[in-house]
Amino acid sequence: MAEVIIVRDQTEAGSVAASIFAQQISTNPCTVLGLATGSTPLSTYAALAATVAEDAIDVSGVRGFALDEYLGVPPQHPESYRSVITREVVEPLGLNPDYVFTPRGTGPGITQAGAEYEDMIAEAGGIDIQILGIGSNGHVGFNEPGSSLASTTRIKALAEQTRKDNARFFDSPDEVPTHCITQGLGTILKARQLVLLAFGANKAQAVAAALEGPVSSAVPGSVIQQHPRATVIIDESAAAGLAHAEYYRHAWRSAQILNAVSF
Ligand code: GLP
């Protein structure tokens, strides 16, 4: 079971998550990060950028692989995930852009792009730590309900709910792409550590189903239950549907006390 940390707000979540990432980068300066887009990871990226600015960690050797990309959206489009990752992660953290990759969403031989991306991740030695958000329908990356638990990077159709949720990033709902290329659930499970964040009441149902429901392709986020090293950081609103919230609070308090005490 994942370690579940219930925090006050996104700022606190960002600082808890950033400290996990900073610890990983301090241990291995050539860490391979798994990067997510969307609103959820922004407070983590901001807190990590502040840590870098204090010269507390060296990110010159850090590499990164984005979870997903829209199909048919050129990399230079402001809402391509390549642009988003550049704007929200590469520039603020000062990562080397040549070390950060997104799946290819355009160009010839696009049906091979998923296999190419899997090869690139493998050549980098695999992802050390993956940050994840969760869609209101339970998707992770762009693995919509029904995705195989063993899936690898491939082209997928977006669910209408996801297109509606992401319409805020485009001038009109019709402009939201219909397809994407996304790391699979099997790819995500191969990352050595997962950190999933979720905020707000519209994520409560997906969070409860992912953490406490059956592991099922109907709720792609439920794969987190199969990962041996996963941390879930959520605010009170996103935790509202959890049956065992009191236990998670107790377990997190105990873990902090144990960390502070030497026997
Ligand atoms: C997006 C991304 C996911 C993200 C999710 C939630 O469409 N493909 O990686 O986690 O949907 O987005 P948000 O964080 O904006 O709520």
Give a written overview of the molecule:
- The chain has 8 helices and 10 strands.
- The protein has a single domain, classed as 3-Layer(aba) Sandwich (Rossmann fold), CATH 3.40.50.1360.
- The two termini are 26 Å apart.
- With 263 residues, the protein is of the alpha/beta class.
- A 7-stranded parallel beta sheet has the order 1-10-9-6-2-3-5. A 3-stranded antiparallel beta sheet has the order 4-8-7.
- The protein is globular, with a radius of gyration of 18 Å.
- Bound molecules: 2-amino-2-deoxy-6-O-phosphono-alpha-D-glucopyranose.
Question: What are the key terms here?
Answer:
alpha/beta, globular, 7-stranded parallel beta sheet, 16% strand, binds 2-amino-2-deoxy-6-O-phosphono-alpha-D-glucopyranose, 263 residues, 10 strands, 3-stranded antiparallel beta sheet, Rossmann fold
CATH topology: Rossmann fold
Name the CATH class.
Alpha Beta
The SSE order reads EHEHEEHEHEEHEHEHEH
CATH architecture: 3-Layer(aba) Sandwich
Order of strands across the main sheet: 1-10-9-6-2-3-5
The helix content is: 25-40%
Which consecutive residue ranges, at least 5 long each, have pLDDT under 50? none
Overall domain count: 1
The end-to-end distance, rounded to whole angstroms, is 26 Å
Structural class, by secondary structure, is alpha/beta
Counting H and I runs of at least 4 residues, what is the number of helices?
Answer: 8
Outline the biggest β-sheet.
Answer: 7 strands, parallel
Could you say which overall geometry the principal axes of the C-alpha atoms support?
A: globular
Bound molecules: 2-amino-2-deoxy-6-O-phosphono-alpha-D-glucopyranose
